[in-house]
Amino acid sequence: MHRRSGSDTDSRFQSRAHPLSVTVVRSGAQRRYTEHGSVVCGRVLRDGLTKMQKVTEVRDEVLFPQRPDYLFDPEGWPQRIGDANEGRGGTVMVANDTGRFALRQYRRGGLVARLLADQYLYTGAENTRCMREWRLLLEMTRIGLPVPVPAAARFIQSGLFYRASLVTRWIPDSETLAQRLTQRPLMSQHWHKLGGVIATFHQHGIYHADLNAHNVMLDAESNWFLIDFDRGEQRERGKWQLTNLGRLHRSLEKERGRMQATHWDRADWSALLEGYAAVSDSVR
Fold first, then answer.
1. Is residue 46 helix, strand or coil?
2. Are residues 227 and 175 in contact, defined by beta-carbon separation less than 8 angstroms?
3. Mean pLDDT of all residues in 101-127
4. Which of 5, 7, 163, 198 is most open to solvent, judged by the fewest CB atoms within 10 Å of its CB?
5. What is the pLDDT of residue 231?
6. pLDDT tens-digit map of 203-234
7. Which of 250, 273, 138 has its CA nearest to residue 202?
8. Whether 152 contacts 59, CB under 8 Å
9. pTM of this prediction?
10. Does an H or E element contain 252, and which?
């Protein structure tokens, strides 16, 4: 899938740029400013007499003209369709009259999760996991890359730590690469196309911190998408691009070892690399 631009860009993934004047409340003081393409609001909550929390949110006003009370509550949405097969198990698929969304509660992995399952050290609003991913998704959507459209984000600061959530549009009629390979093989042109999509991300300096078979999605029209850009960033091109590909390759090998029915072999990977090289060479 090549990078879309102009009239070819799917309307689901077009950037929504509309400057908005909003109010931010920080510890009782108010200030007004303009956030491009989103609504930002903050409020301070007091829990009992000892604990103070500051809640900061952003949302797309086109998708949510009025903030629904259930926006970040997976149990409160009109429909909870089920758990999404991505990330560390903190993502659920939900829906309302607007459509389907993926709601993620950021969670840690590894040993540290036993102590701080969903808490992160607060070092500033722009450094929070949700705001970094929100802004990266906005930039990729503006460019025209095939990623989920960001819908809303929130972090709740309490003392030295914070918890975070992110809402994105669900990609219609899609499944992960890992899911697809357990059912039936992909044709060579699909692998070639996927290689070209990854190369397009790399040409724009988009680094995916966890490029694996569960973060690559294919829709019913054979379009590829990348999801879950937690800890991703835009950086100068370099050796990290090959490391990115290597991570995906290891993921596919792991899936083949874990699932005996996985339809994937070396010829498929060669087709992916050919597609990657074709896009990389075309822009040099």
1. strand
2. no
3. 83
4. 7
5. 94
6. 999 999 999 999 999 999 999 999 999 999 99
7. 273
8. yes
9. 0.82
10. helix 240-258
Q: Could you tell me how many residues make up the chain?
A: 284
Sequential DSSP letters for 74-108 = TTTSSEEEEE-SSTTS-EEEEEETTEEEEEEE---
C-alpha–C-alpha distance, residues 151 and 258, integer Å? 34
Q: Is the dihedral of CA 41, 152, 133, 76 positive or negative?
A: positive
How many other C-beta atoms are found inside a 10 Å radius of the C-beta of residue 257?
Answer: 9
Helices (H), 96-184: 129-143, 177-181
The residues carrying an active-site annotation are 210
Measured torsion, CA atoms of residues 187, 188, 190, 192, in degrees rounded to the nearest 10: 180
In the block, residue with structure tokens 């800890």? 231
Taking alpha carbons only, the member of 84, 82, 123, 129 closest to residue 108 is: 129
Show the tokens assigned to 50.
């000892």
Residue 24: CB atoms within 10 A of its CB come to 15
Are 136 and 233 in contact by the 8 Å Cβ rule? The answer is yes
Collapsing DSSP states into helix, strand and coil, what is residue 219? strand
Name the band, by pLDDT with cuts 50, 70 and 90, for residue 117. Answer: confident
Give the chain's radius of gyration (CA, Å): 20
Count the Cβ atoms, other than its own, within 10 Å of residue 159.
Answer: 10
State how far Cα 284 lies from the chain centre: 28
**What CA dihedral angle connects 65, 70, 71 and 73, to 10 degrees?**
180
Per-residue exposure over 160-189, b if at least 16 CB sit within 10 Å of its own CB, e if not: eebbbbbbbbbbeebbbbbebbbeeebeee
